[in-house]
């Protein structure tokens, strides 16, 4: 839930999603859900020569499970806030 | 292809004698906490160390961990968290 | 629960104690990362900053397979702030306190 919230705070920011098939897509994060499925607008594929079929694609929906990494805009991430929120969530999960 | 004058395969290592007591898998796991263990991952990589603790997903915390690949030490970690889905088995590395 | 040596009761305690520290992460696909840990969850989804990724590209030399000769190429890259999906994580190691 915590990571979902982080992504929600980053909507309308530029991110780069790297998929498990090595495709990297940069775009504006339009929305995210609890599975960390992601909608990107204004997308650009990193290596267009290798993925010519993606050149005409302007926006996309990415299933969360195929994501390897998401590169985030560091200036929009409050690391202290993240660590505190993570500790808080860890506390609630201990009593499983 | 097998080389003709390659040495014969080394004799299979003898498995440690089975524990004298019987019990459930949970009893085994409780018994090995704090003991030296070998954790084998599905990838074939082994981790040898002292089992600090584990949880219901088989997430594992190890201390004084050595990573073994094909019998050779490839890494050492003071502490290591292993994500449970990668675990093939946990084996006691000292008498229980 | 027994209060064992280091006061760690469950594996995630190890990760929690590593928040804001540099950690080593071993991933599927012969990748490893080091970075400063800022967030994680129960899936081992991670958020790291100041990340260096190392990708091991192993080329087994066909003519020397029996000799076990292989060349390992290493690719490295850096990223400022990175979300890592938990399902690719194999191992996380906190900074060594040895």
TrEMBL record, chain A:
SUPFAM superfamilies: Sm-like ribonucleoproteins. InterPro entries: LSM_dom_sf, Sm, Sm_dom_euk/arc, U6_snRNA_Lsm2. GO terms for molecular function: RNA binding. Keywords: mRNA processing, mRNA splicing, Nucleus, Ribonucleoprotein, RNA-binding, Spliceosome. One of its GO terms (cellular component) is U6 snRNP. The keyword Transmembrane does not apply. The keyword Nucleus applies. GO terms for biological process: mRNA splicing, via spliceosome. Signal peptide: none annotated. SMART domains: Sm. It is found in: Nucleus. Residues 2-76 form the Sm domain. Transmembrane segments: none annotated. Belongs to the snRNP Sm proteins family. PANTHER family: SNRNP CORE PROTEIN FAMILY MEMBER, U6 SNRNA-ASSOCIATED SM-LIKE PROTEIN LSM2. Component of LSm protein complexes, which are involved in RNA processing and may function in a chaperone-like manner. This is LSM complex subunit LSm2. It comes from Pleurotus ostreatus.
TrEMBL record, chain B:
The lineage of its organism: Eukaryota, Fungi, Dikarya, Basidiomycota, Agaricomycotina. Its main location: cytoplasm. It comes from Pleurotus ostreatus. GO terms for molecular function: RNA binding. Component of LSm protein complexes, which are involved in RNA processing and may function in a chaperone-like manner, facilitating the efficient association of RNA processing factors with their substrates. Component of the cytoplasmic LSM1-LSM7 complex, which is thought to be involved in mRNA degradation by activating the decapping step in the 5'-to-3' mRNA decay pathway. Component of the nuclear LSM2-LSM8 complex, which is involved in splicing of nuclear mRNAs. This is U6 snRNA-associated Sm-like protein LSm6. Belongs to the snRNP Sm proteins family. SmF/LSm6 subfamily. Residues 1-28 are annotated as: Disordered. One of its GO terms (biological process) is tRNA processing. Keywords: Cytoplasm, mRNA processing, mRNA splicing, Nucleus, Ribonucleoprotein, RNA-binding, rRNA processing, Spliceosome, tRNA processing. One of its GO terms (cellular component) is U6 snRNP. It is found in: Cytoplasm; Nucleus. Residues 1-20 have a biased composition (Pro residues). Residues 24-96 form the Sm domain. Component of the heptameric LSM1-LSM7 complex, which consists of LSM1, LSM2, LSM3, LSM4, LSM5, LSM6 and LSM7. Component of the heptameric LSM2-LSM8 complex, which consists of LSM2, LSM3, LSM4, LSM5, LSM6, LSM7 and LSM8. The LSm subunits form a seven-membered ring structure with a doughnut shape. It comes from the Eukaryota.
TrEMBL record, chain C:
GO terms for molecular function: RNA binding. Keywords: mRNA processing, mRNA splicing, Nucleus, Ribonucleoprotein, RNA-binding, Spliceosome. GO terms for biological process: mRNA splicing, via spliceosome. One of its GO terms (cellular component) is spliceosomal complex. It is found in: Nucleus. It comes from the Eukaryota. Residues 13-94 form the Sm domain. Its main location: nucleus. LSm subunits form a heteromer with a doughnut shape. Binds specifically to the 3'-terminal U-tract of U6 snRNA. Belongs to the snRNP Sm proteins family. This is LSM complex subunit LSM3. It comes from Pleurotus ostreatus (Oyster mushroom). The lineage of its organism: Eukaryota, Fungi, Dikarya, Basidiomycota, Agaricomycotina. The gene is LSM3.
